[in-house]
Design a protein that fits this description.
This protein is an alpha/beta fold. Helix content is about 30%, strand content about 20%. α4 runs antiparallel to α8. It is globular. The two termini are about 20 Å apart. About 45% of the residues are buried.
Length: about 475
């Protein structure tokens, strides 16, 4: 009688029924591997949830594997290390480089938030609060990073092999393949990470995967497709042409990773036909500037059209009228000019960062334009503006909104429903799939498509639930 093969246990500890807080624990061959360790973002309980326990003892983990460097996938790594994790953290080379920028920034923000809250509590006679983690915790975390190349296969633990493939989402983003030698054969778990859209600029398309016993798959936009990217770019060109005729500034709240770089790409691509030599293009974000420099160190990860563009010019990250602003005084000086500037600044939802200062100086001007190029969550200043607020409050000052507002919806770094379904369709035999990283309406819609099109067995992950395979 043959011996029963040992099962592999997958516990989805985060991003189960929500988009952020990626954290998935795999237990196999007597070992424990954690996939991602991200922050929860949005909502009134995020601070308490991020500071809470992990649902397991970090000291008992044997390895950590991260899919990419967005904070909702790596933001709690320093806390994991501070609470006892002492093993390796595996990532692609570009993700390891980007993690330094992202985590150092997260630590500084945590310190600033804690200091601000402590002052409020002190006035109430209450004890101060501590930041989620410190810069020294970030440094301890970065020392544990073990970079890998796409396509490389590495045994990270006895009987457990890891391979990364390109996810096409942000620089260094990876699809994770874990291969377990069990019962005389291999069992394969594929974790999608975040899947990027096909035919987007700069980065290559997501890699088709063919073999898996279980697929752990994101579903952020599982219920819809995005607007056509080319239509969106044409609209941006029209906005800039009209804005130049009106003689004002253009403000673009943009995320530092991915979105800022893509906007610069399209400006380079349409340099002549959009007449961009007439503008001063300003990237006013120290973080976006560091990320853009990092992109230039990893051009081997770019798609062929972008690499050809770098050779013939104009170079998207070295436009002749591009000015990258780091110094605070230089940022303040931008607002002395009332016209002729395209200002890209964070944060992307206008809830912090330098964009708020530029909005304060431009929102009331009838000849200025505000262009939103990313999702605006409820409760953010960006959402108020997108929803048509006539007045907003900035730095204690009530400001009338007279600037024109535009929302461009086709520049997402995530695949929509069709792209997600097509990516899954490459798997031989259409293995069971567990949907994470999506709210329930999106997950249910994608589950229905996968079931109808591929007869896939689909599970909607629940926090702490166990899947065996």
């Amino acid at each position: 009688m043959s011996r029963k093969e040992p099962s592999i246990r997958l516990r989805c500890m985060g991003a189960a029924g929500e988009v952020t807080g990626s954290r998935h624990l795999v237990e196999a061959l007597g070992r424990r591997v954690l996939l991602d360790c991200g922050m929860v973002q949005g909502g009134h309980t995020e601070t308490a949830r991020n500071a809470a326990g992990f649902g397991f003892d970090p000291a008992e983990l044997d390895a950590v594997v991260v899919s990419h460097a967005h904070i909702d996938h790596i933001g709690r790594l320093p806390l994991l290390v501070a609470r006892g994790y002492s093993g390796p953290i595996h990532a692609t080379r570009a993700t390891a480089d980007l993690a330094r920028i992202m985590l150092e920034d997260a630590a500084r923000l945590a310190a600033a938030d804690a200091e601000r809250e402590s002052r409020v509590r002190q006035r109430r006679g209450e004890a101060p609060v501590q930041p989620l983690y410190l810069l020294r915790d970030v440094q301890d975390t970065l020392r544990r990073l073990q970079p890998m190349d796409y396509g490389e296969r590495r045994e990270i633990l006895p009987g457990i092999q890891l391979r990364f493939e390109d996810a096409g989402h942000i620089l260094g983003a990876a699809i994770v393949e874990l291969r377990f030698r069990t019962g005389g054969r291999d069992k394969v778990l594929v974790f999608s990470g975040d899947i990027g859209p096909a035919a987007a600029p700069i980065l290559r398309d997501p890699t088709p995967m063919h073999e898996a016993d279980l697929v752990l798959m994101e579903s952020t936009y599982g219920d819809r497709d995005h607007r056509d990217r080319n239509e969106t770019v044409r609209e941006l060109g029209t906005i800039l042409a009209n804005a130049h005729a009106d003689g004002g500034n253009v403000l673009i709240p943009a995320f530092a990773v991915g979105r800022s770089q893509e906007l610069l790409y399209w400006m380079a691509r349409h340099w002549h036909d959009w007449g961009l030599e007439r503008w001063q293009v300003i990237l006013d974000s120290p973080m976006a500037t560091r990320v853009t420099e990092l992109y230039q160190r990893h051009t081997e990860l770019f798609d062929e059209p972008t690499r050809r563009m770098l050779e013939r010019g104009p170079h998207p990250f070295r436009l002749p009228n591009l000015r990258c602003v780091v110094d605070v005084q230089d940022s303040m000086a931008i607002n002395r000019r009332a016209s002729g500037q395209i200002i890209l600044a964070g944060s992307g939802m206008c809830n912090g960062g330098r964009i708020r200062h530029h909005l304060r100086h431009n929102l009331w001007r009838e000849n200025c334009d505000i262009v939103f190029v990313g999702f605006q969550a409820r409760g953010t200043l960006g959402r108020q503006l997108v929803d048509g607020a006539e007045f907003v409050t900035l730095f204690g000052e009530k400001i009338r909104v007279r600037a024109r507002r535009h929302t461009l919806g086709g520049l997402s770094a995530h695949a929509g429903q069709s792209g997600l379904a097509a990516w899954y369709g490459h798997f031989h035999g259409h293995p069971p799939v567990v949907l994470v990283h999506g709210e329930d309406p999106a997950r249910k819609a994608l589950a229905e498509v996968l079931q109808q099109r591929y007869r896939a067995r689909v599970t909607l992950a629940r926090a702490g639930g166990v899947i065996r395979f």
